[in-house]
Automatic annotation (TrEMBL), chains A, B:
UniProt KW Magnesium keyword: yes
GO molecular function list: 2-phosphosulfolactate phosphatase activity; magnesium ion binding; sulfopyruvate decarboxylase activity
Gene3D superfamilies: ComB-like
Enzyme Commission number(s): 3.1.3.71
UniProt keywords, alphabetically: Hydrolase, Magnesium
Catalysed reaction equations from the record: (2R)-O-phospho-3-sulfolactate + H2O = (2R)-3-sulfolactate + phosphate
First-level EC class: hydrolase
Protein name according to UniProt: Probable 2-phosphosulfolactate phosphatase
């Protein structure tokens, strides 16, 4: 299985996405929050690039909520921040959320040329790995995987890369990796027992802690909490169901 | 000491370079070749972006040689490839070399806003580390280091990142790192005994081996062969001498 890992949005080289399964990772916090929202009954998440686009989109989707962040904080006039703890059943159950974040929703939108876009995080790792292995067993059209780490403001992000490394490691030895994929797996191997501590010390981790959001970080760095595989279908992110 | 590591040329975010010492790393092979050329008596290396620029530059520098590569191979009409083994005393002694490579010379030229641009590789590691520590002891204007990994065709490169990790590790514990710097040091720690093997398996390593250039790779992956610190002075790369 051919796997190419991208370090962040804004990467100068966009890989070939045809016949590829794209796995978007934004551990802190977009993909962790999306997993949580779906697990808590959110009907669908609509990824958009800007707060303005979110406001315009809501006009066509009455009853939907606005969620997301700029500079890690809730956007003025929005219903939800980018914290997974905002996405509780009482708020998101049965509703659509229009979401805009600095890194994660941009990575999802950048991947739009791919036939399949799925979302990974530590909290849904076991489920995404099982789903990917099962998809490659049955879908012979797929030529490989692009792991799109959202990064932090167009920069390499340690949490995303470690998550990519855990994902690659779980797929087993029959993988062909680009250099960043090899590095991600090495980084995961050298730190799998201290994930939370390393993410605490990362640039994005330190920023969240400084904003009082350490609880978010610890939750997002915990593997295998929720059995959810978010997938893009017709521009909306929904829960993958057996086909 | 604040250290920011960049993954490759073409990175979307160029850091602040004022009052920074930039360390350019292109293990395979530009900075290794530059170190070797200077050790073998080359008078100066002039980094240029394109073969055309090299040809034009030679018109103003009679007696100089043209060196470099495209797609890892010597450029038609040039005197020297990008192999360190081309830069022997009989060829480069006492002469200037105008050099253009895909990644390394571009990274050097990208750094031109910095007051100091030095070059690192495995082969001159001990010397560059000593020179950096000594510079920071005496030059109180310097605010930090930008380690500019040239990468491979605008992508993350494992050899460059491991070299950055060895460099950071050698500077000791009093460093403040961005996420890629932390990752580089972790990668180096987890593989310092198998550098050559890991670089053999990297994307760029495999390419050089496929072209019959494994000898270059093994040489470039060997630490501490030459006591040379290449520095940019007035647009030319020369040997750092005691000030």
């Amino acid at each position: 299985m051919q796997i190419e890992v991208l370090p962040s949005t804004g990467s100068p080289r966009t890989p070939y996405l045809e016949e590829r399964l794209v796995i978007v990772i934004d551990v802190l916090r977009a993909t962790s929050t999306i997993v949580t929202a779906l697990a808590n009954g959110c009907q669908a998440i609509i990824p958009v690039l800007t707060p303005q686009e979110a406001l315009e989109r809501r006009l066509t989707l009455p009853g939907s909520l606005l969620g997301g962040e700029r500079d890690s904080l809730i956007i003025e006039g929005f219903d939800l921040s980018n914290s997974p703890f905002d996405y509780v059943p009482e708020k998101v159950g049965g509703r659509r959320v229009i979401l805009t974040t600095t890194n994660g929703t941009r990575a999802i939108r950048d991947s739009i040329a791919a036939p399949m876009i799925w979302m990974a995080s530590f909290i849904n790792m076991q489920s995404i790995v099982s789903a990917v292995l099962s998809e490659f067993e049955t879908n012979k059209k797929l030529q490989g995987i692009v792991v799109y780490c959202a990064g932090t403001e167009e920069r390499f992000d340690l949490a995303d890369t470690l998550c990519a490394g855990m994902f690659i490691d779980a797929l087993g030895p029959n993988v062909v990796l680009n250099d960043l994929g090899t590095a991600a797996r090495m980084l995961y191997h050298s730190s799998e027992d201290q994930l939370v501590d390393i993410i605490r010390d990362s640039d994005h981790g330190k920023k969240l802690i400084s904003l009082g959001l350490e609880k978010d970080l610890v939750y997002c760095a915990t593997p295998n909490i929720l059995p959810i595989v978010p997938v893009v279908q017709d521009g909306e992110i929904v829960w993958l169901t057996e086909q």
